[in-house]
């Protein structure tokens, strides 16, 4: 079984785990490549948070504030402070009590700090959940589609199949029942449903409170967990935000996935899971699902950088653990930008204008994203042309669909841009759409 | 398929991924529990680095130094500096060029910065490698046993089997050939061998340069990668350190796994892989193995906290990217402690003393660990008694074996303790050993 000794060792891609060839990855790679090839194009594509409020000095301040909290509020000695910040530490993290306090203050969620697992971004939390829930290849996860691309990636790493459920402006219950029935008919076990109920990525859509309650009832009847991901719920047009699924969860059916990437700093890479479900062992003993997730975490990243946690913790502490208060400026920025984007679309694509026939968009009341529907294919080729000829980037929606869909849709983000850039971006998008409409009309005439 | 709706949702442990029931995990849990139950016991068990040199102010300084490096050496604008530190960033990291420089300065390794993937500790690097190399269940990884418990954990998460290879003071080549032959005979594909060649955890053992060269030849002939983990190589008694496997690697067969946990700060959770192998796709195009690992990383943790990377980077920059220089004090501390431990063992267990018959130990010339062999079972029950009655903690070696072995061995670590605590710990260990020898002699008489 020896082979010719090459001068250099080579690997064959076909002999690597199939996840490295995942369509979701190719999507991300393609989108990154386009934005790299056209660095001067205005990006209505990027989902990153606004940067203009970042201050280097704040890092020093946050770290000091957190250390002072350890001394003053938790009674730590200097030695204990240094050990907490610098040494290997608790697998579930050192920020759990502040996250629990934040969830109480901002979301009316009553979370036991012991049920909180601090993770390296929300992506790790998602991976831990799927890895834990996939005991064999009959276990599957459902996801409202279109969805966050990281869901498909995490599932692929856990070798877990994802079954799409139609969105229909929230969640299509008929389709949910149908997917559950078909899955069980094929001997599969639906373990969880992944959903972003508030100002979703990519759709901007919200589930109604009524639908949230109904989803919890269905999950209870049909015995699956709900993985609620909530990166954008904070950034709402109205100060009266609707309750999250977790706030409505009286039966421990919801694993709540949070991130401080959008609400504190992306650069700390801090996310978390609230996993308060009880796990019953063969011996009848009970643990928390959070502790099972922590076991898996100990094999992936051991623990989350306590220095990074401390910096995020300082930001929480400076605002009484309220991210609503901490993000007053950011939320206002996103509100202004979103309205600017929606008004800008209305100005450029007027109802009744034959040059805008078939162009429509939704009107999210929060979050980072707006979806535009067009009467032609908004595919990768059009994005490439848009970047090259018109100097504007957006995201083809089909990348977010599990399976088919979204070919006539674009996702626009206005999170990171100043308003004048949004205007310029929309002017360029308008030129692209007009050109494409003309081309498709010509094509239609040709066909006649 | 609906079931009775419980008032609270419960999960069954048997329906979770088997990794949460992994023996390696139970080992860690048991060891942590014992040390928690007996907080006043002196710990010759913990493998953490020395804490006395940690300074909170250094974090601020390191961050500033790294930002200045971005401005002065890389020509970044203030906006680019802030974006690098705070925003989502490069999947392979922002510290790659400094790690490459460090490897050149300290290890005579010529690493292309593009082949470096910065990870959340070395554990993530290990997981990425195993996940990538496990394309189906015929793919297995070999590991010199006893070994680091995190190897078994990472393999379990990737659903990859681990085949142990005997250590025999380095690596037992006859056993290696036998394991390779048997594996191939059963249709398995050995993809890689995991080894800590210098001052290994747990054994403290070093591979000779001759054995390192031979291992590289075997790997080339038999077509497997070598995963070289090197957390302790820096902490050597002699300033002339032997070359790493990677420094001897002329055929890109070695993936070098590094960590800044022991040499910079555990609390930054920064590790890395140098993966300079070429990967050939079905279309004949070529990528670096590092880029395939980065794809997987994007699905696990997206990217490593750039703030944590910046802090680690500041420490590197302050010492011209030499961790040898940065760790002058630490290395001296470990040298003094190791000699103190070895001399203390020799003082307490004298050759020819009938009260020490059958007690021996190895004499590592670097690293954190020393292994003591005793003529009785050094198992979990004895550790519990040791903690409760004698007030001293150590690690039963059997926890580090893949399969059987190590039942008569203890791992001692002297990394974190001051010398007077080492003395006290050894006095207590001596009392335990004397008691156990007496008990086993009585047991032997009983049997007669």
Automatic annotation (TrEMBL), chains A, B:
Pfam families, A to Z: Aminotran_1_2 (PF00155)
InterPro entries recorded: Aminotransferase_I/II_large, Class-I_PLP-dep_aminotransf, PyrdxlP-dep_Trfase, PyrdxlP-dep_Trfase_major, PyrdxlP-dep_Trfase_small
Domain Aminotransferase class I/classII large: start-end pairs: 82-429
MF term (GO), any: transaminase activity
Entry annotated with the keyword Transferase: yes
Record's keyword terms, sorted: Aminotransferase, Pyridoxal phosphate, Transferase
Cofactor(s) needed by this chain: pyridoxal 5'-phosphate
SUPFAM superfamilies cross-referenced by the UniProt entry: PLP-dependent transferases
CDD domains in the record: AAT_like
UniProt-listed PANTHER family: AMINOTRANSFERASE (PTHR42790), KYNURENINE_ALPHA-AMINOADIPATE AMINOTRANSFERASE, MITOCHONDRIAL (PTHR42790:SF19)
Name under which the protein is recorded: PLP-dependent aminotransferase family protein
Lineage of producing organism: Bacteria, Bacillati, Actinomycetota, Actinomycetes, Pseudonocardiales
């Amino acid at each position: 079984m020896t082979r010719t000794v090459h001068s250099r060792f080579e690997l064959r891609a076909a002999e690597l785990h199939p996840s490295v060839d995942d369509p979701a990855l190719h999507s991300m790679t393609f989108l990154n490549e386009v934005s790299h090839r056209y660095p001067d194009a205005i990006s209505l594509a990027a989902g990153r948070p606004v940067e203009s409020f970042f201050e280097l000095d704040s890092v020093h301040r946050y770290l000091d504030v957190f250390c002072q909290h350890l001394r003053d509020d938790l009674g730590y000695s200097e030695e204990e402070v240094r050990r907490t910040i610098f040494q290997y530490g608790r697998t579930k993290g050192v920020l759990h009590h502040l996250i629990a306090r934040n969830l109480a203050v901002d979301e009316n969620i009553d979370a036991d700090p012991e049920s909180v697992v601090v993770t390296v971004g929300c992506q790790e939390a998602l991976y831990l959940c799927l890895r834990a829930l996939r005991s064999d290849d009959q276990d599957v996860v459902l996801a409202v589609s279109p969805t966050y691309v990281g869901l498909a990636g995490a599932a692929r790493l856990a070798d877990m199949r994802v079954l799409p459920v139609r969105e229909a402006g929230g969640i299509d219950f008929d389709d949910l029942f149908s997917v559950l029935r078909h899955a069980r008919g094929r001997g599969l076990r639906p373990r969880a449903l992944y959903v972003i109920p508030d100002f979703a990525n990519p759709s901007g859509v919200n589930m109604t409170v009524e639908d949230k309650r109904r989803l919890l009832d269905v999950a209870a009847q049909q015995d699956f967990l709900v993985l609620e991901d909530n990166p954008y719920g904070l950034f709402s047009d109205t100060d009266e935000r609707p309750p999250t699924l977790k706030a409505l969860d009286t039966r421990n059916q919801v694993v709540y996935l949070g991130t401080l990437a959008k609400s504190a700093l992306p650069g700390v890479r801090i996310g978390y899971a609230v996993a308060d479900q009880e796990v019953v062992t063969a011996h009848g003993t009970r643990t928390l699902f959070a502790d099972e997730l922590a076991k898996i975490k100990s094999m992936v990243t051991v623990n989350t950088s306590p220095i990074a946690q401390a910096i995020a913790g300082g930001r929480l502490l400076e605002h009484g653990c309220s991210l609503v208060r901490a993000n007053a400026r950011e939320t206002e920025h996103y509100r202004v930008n979103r309205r600017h984007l929606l008004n800008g679309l209305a100005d450029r694509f007027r109802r009744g204008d034959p040059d805008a026939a078939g162009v429509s968009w939704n009107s999210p009341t929060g979050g980072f994203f707006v979806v535009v529907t067009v009467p032609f294919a908004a595919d990768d080729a059009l994005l490439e042309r848009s970047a090259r000829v018109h100097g504007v980037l957006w995201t083809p929606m089909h990348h977010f669909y599990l399976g088919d869909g979204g070919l006539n849709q674009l996702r626009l983000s206005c999170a990171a841009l100043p308003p004048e850039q949004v205007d310029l971006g929309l002017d360029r998008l308008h030129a692209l759409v007009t050109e494409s409409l003309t081309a498709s009309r010509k094509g239609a005439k040709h066909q006649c």
